Amino acid sequence: MDFLAGLAEGFIGLFNAGGATFMGLVTGIIPTLVVLITFVNSIIMIVGEEKVERFAKKMTGNFFTRYTVFPFLAVFFLTNPMAYTFGKFLEEKYKPAFYDAAVSFVHPITGLFPHANAGELFVWLGISQGITQLGLGISELAVRYLIVGLIVILIRGIVTERITIMMMSRREAE
Protein backbone atom coordinates (compact mmCIF):
# COMPACT_ATOMS: atom_id res chain seq x y z
CA MET A 1 0.00 0.00 0.00
CA ASP A 2 2.86 2.41 0.79
CA PHE A 3 4.28 1.70 -2.64
CA LEU A 4 1.01 2.71 -4.38
CA ALA A 5 0.67 5.82 -2.22
CA GLY A 6 4.26 6.83 -3.04
CA LEU A 7 3.61 6.19 -6.74
CA ALA A 8 0.47 8.36 -6.64
CA GLU A 9 2.31 11.17 -4.83
CA GLY A 10 5.12 11.03 -7.38
CA PHE A 11 2.62 11.06 -10.25
CA ILE A 12 0.78 14.16 -9.03
CA GLY A 13 4.08 15.73 -7.93
CA LEU A 14 5.24 15.60 -11.53
CA PHE A 15 2.23 17.64 -12.63
CA ASN A 16 2.58 20.03 -9.69
CA ALA A 17 6.18 20.69 -10.73
CA GLY A 18 5.02 21.26 -14.31
CA GLY A 19 2.34 23.67 -13.07
CA ALA A 20 4.86 25.56 -10.95
CA THR A 21 7.18 25.92 -13.95
CA PHE A 22 4.27 27.11 -16.09
CA MET A 23 3.25 29.69 -13.47
CA GLY A 24 6.87 30.87 -13.28
CA LEU A 25 6.75 31.55 -17.03
CA VAL A 26 3.33 33.21 -16.85
CA THR A 27 4.38 35.55 -14.05
CA GLY A 28 7.97 36.04 -15.22
CA ILE A 29 9.07 36.20 -18.83
CA ILE A 30 5.69 36.37 -20.58
CA PRO A 31 4.59 39.75 -19.12
CA THR A 32 8.05 41.17 -19.83
CA LEU A 33 7.87 40.01 -23.43
CA VAL A 34 4.36 41.40 -23.89
CA VAL A 35 5.46 44.81 -22.57
CA LEU A 36 8.62 44.78 -24.71
CA ILE A 37 6.69 43.80 -27.83
CA THR A 38 4.15 46.53 -27.13
CA PHE A 39 6.93 49.07 -26.58
CA VAL A 40 8.75 48.18 -29.80
CA ASN A 41 5.54 48.18 -31.83
CA SER A 42 4.68 51.59 -30.32
CA ILE A 43 8.07 52.98 -31.33
CA ILE A 44 7.62 51.60 -34.82
CA MET A 45 4.16 53.18 -35.04
CA ILE A 46 5.50 56.55 -33.78
CA VAL A 47 8.50 56.59 -36.12
CA GLY A 48 6.56 55.08 -38.99
CA GLU A 49 6.79 51.55 -40.28
CA GLU A 50 8.00 52.69 -43.70
CA LYS A 51 10.92 54.60 -42.18
CA VAL A 52 11.88 51.69 -39.94
CA GLU A 53 11.68 49.23 -42.82
CA ARG A 54 13.70 51.57 -45.06
CA PHE A 55 16.38 51.85 -42.37
CA ALA A 56 16.36 48.07 -41.89
CA LYS A 57 16.67 47.47 -45.64
CA LYS A 58 19.69 49.78 -45.80
CA MET A 59 21.18 48.09 -42.75
CA THR A 60 20.66 44.58 -44.14
CA GLY A 61 21.52 45.32 -47.76
CA ASN A 62 24.85 43.55 -47.56
CA PHE A 63 25.93 40.46 -45.66
CA PHE A 64 28.48 42.27 -43.50
CA THR A 65 26.11 44.71 -41.81
CA ARG A 66 23.27 42.15 -41.90
CA TYR A 67 25.24 39.81 -39.65
CA THR A 68 27.27 42.26 -37.55
CA VAL A 69 25.72 45.73 -37.13
CA PHE A 70 22.06 44.68 -37.34
CA PRO A 71 22.32 41.91 -34.68
CA PHE A 72 24.44 44.24 -32.52
CA LEU A 73 21.77 46.95 -32.65
CA ALA A 74 19.02 44.41 -32.01
CA VAL A 75 20.71 42.89 -28.96
CA PHE A 76 21.95 46.23 -27.61
CA PHE A 77 18.64 48.09 -27.84
CA LEU A 78 16.07 45.33 -27.40
CA THR A 79 18.11 42.88 -25.29
CA ASN A 80 17.56 39.13 -25.11
CA PRO A 81 15.00 37.72 -26.10
CA MET A 82 13.25 40.70 -27.71
CA ALA A 83 16.19 41.22 -30.08
CA TYR A 84 14.98 38.42 -32.32
CA THR A 85 11.95 40.48 -33.36
CA PHE A 86 14.27 42.56 -35.57
CA GLY A 87 14.10 39.57 -37.91
CA LYS A 88 10.69 40.74 -39.07
CA PHE A 89 12.41 43.41 -41.16
CA LEU A 90 14.33 40.83 -43.18
CA GLU A 91 13.42 38.77 -46.22
CA GLU A 92 12.44 35.18 -45.40
CA LYS A 93 15.69 33.76 -46.76
CA TYR A 94 17.72 35.85 -44.29
CA LYS A 95 15.66 35.28 -41.15
CA PRO A 96 17.24 31.99 -39.98
CA ALA A 97 20.75 33.44 -40.42
CA PHE A 98 19.82 36.63 -38.57
CA TYR A 99 18.38 34.59 -35.70
CA ASP A 100 21.53 32.48 -35.58
CA ALA A 101 23.71 35.59 -35.52
CA ALA A 102 21.61 37.36 -32.88
CA VAL A 103 21.31 34.36 -30.56
CA SER A 104 25.06 33.79 -30.82
CA PHE A 105 25.75 37.38 -29.81
CA VAL A 106 23.75 37.57 -26.57
CA HIS A 107 26.75 36.42 -24.49
CA PRO A 108 29.72 38.24 -26.08
CA ILE A 109 27.98 41.60 -25.66
CA THR A 110 27.56 41.20 -21.88
CA GLY A 111 31.20 41.98 -21.13
CA LEU A 112 30.71 45.62 -22.15
CA PHE A 113 26.91 45.91 -22.04
CA PRO A 114 25.51 43.69 -19.28
CA HIS A 115 21.96 45.01 -19.77
CA ALA A 116 21.75 43.20 -23.09
CA ASN A 117 21.42 39.79 -21.49
CA ALA A 118 21.12 40.31 -17.75
CA GLY A 119 19.48 36.94 -17.20
CA GLU A 120 22.59 35.13 -18.41
CA LEU A 121 25.23 37.49 -17.05
CA PHE A 122 26.66 34.58 -15.08
CA VAL A 123 28.40 33.37 -18.26
CA TRP A 124 30.46 36.57 -18.53
CA LEU A 125 31.04 36.68 -14.76
CA GLY A 126 32.31 33.11 -14.82
CA ILE A 127 34.69 33.83 -17.67
CA SER A 128 35.99 37.07 -16.19
CA GLN A 129 36.40 35.65 -12.68
CA GLY A 130 39.47 33.70 -13.75
CA ILE A 131 41.10 36.87 -15.11
CA THR A 132 40.19 38.79 -11.96
CA GLN A 133 41.75 36.08 -9.77
CA LEU A 134 44.99 36.52 -11.70
CA GLY A 135 44.94 40.20 -10.76
CA LEU A 136 44.38 41.33 -14.33
CA GLY A 137 41.83 43.83 -15.60
CA ILE A 138 38.78 42.58 -17.43
CA SER A 139 38.29 45.53 -19.80
CA GLU A 140 40.60 44.12 -22.47
CA LEU A 141 38.93 40.74 -22.13
CA ALA A 142 35.51 42.35 -22.57
CA VAL A 143 36.61 44.13 -25.76
CA ARG A 144 38.17 40.94 -27.14
CA TYR A 145 35.04 38.98 -26.19
CA LEU A 146 32.94 41.49 -28.14
CA ILE A 147 35.22 41.46 -31.21
CA VAL A 148 35.37 37.65 -31.29
CA GLY A 149 31.60 37.59 -30.88
CA LEU A 150 31.16 39.87 -33.90
CA ILE A 151 33.49 37.72 -36.00
CA VAL A 152 31.68 34.54 -34.94
CA ILE A 153 28.21 35.94 -35.71
CA LEU A 154 29.42 37.11 -39.12
CA ILE A 155 30.69 33.60 -39.91
CA ARG A 156 27.56 31.94 -38.51
CA GLY A 157 25.31 34.34 -40.42
CA ILE A 158 27.05 33.67 -43.74
CA VAL A 159 27.08 29.89 -43.26
CA THR A 160 23.45 29.73 -42.11
CA GLU A 161 22.38 31.99 -44.97
CA ARG A 162 24.08 29.67 -47.51
CA ILE A 163 22.48 26.59 -45.94
CA THR A 164 19.05 28.26 -45.90
CA ILE A 165 19.28 29.35 -49.54
CA MET A 166 20.44 25.86 -50.56
CA MET A 167 17.53 24.23 -48.69
CA MET A 168 15.02 26.68 -50.14
CA SER A 169 16.33 25.97 -53.65
CA ARG A 170 15.94 22.22 -53.10
CA ARG A 171 12.39 22.68 -51.87
CA GLU A 172 11.50 24.77 -54.92
CA ALA A 173 13.03 22.14 -57.24
CA GLU A 174 10.84 19.39 -55.78
Automatic annotation (TrEMBL):
One Pfam family this sequence matches: EII-GUT
Gene Ontology terms: biological process: phosphoenolpyruvate-dependent sugar phosphotransferase system
TM spans (from-to): 20-47, 67-86, 142-159
Keyword Transmembrane helix: yes
InterPro entries: PTS_IID_sorb (IPR004699)
Signal peptide from the UniProt entry: none
Coiled coil regions in record: none
Protein's UniProt keywords contain Membrane: yes
Keyword vocabulary terms for this entry: Membrane, Transmembrane, Transmembrane helix
Record GO cellular component, one term: membrane
Superkingdom of this protein's organism: Bacteria
NCBIfam families cross-referenced by the UniProt entry: EII-GUT (TIGR00821)
Protein name: PTS glucitol/sorbitol transporter subunit IIC
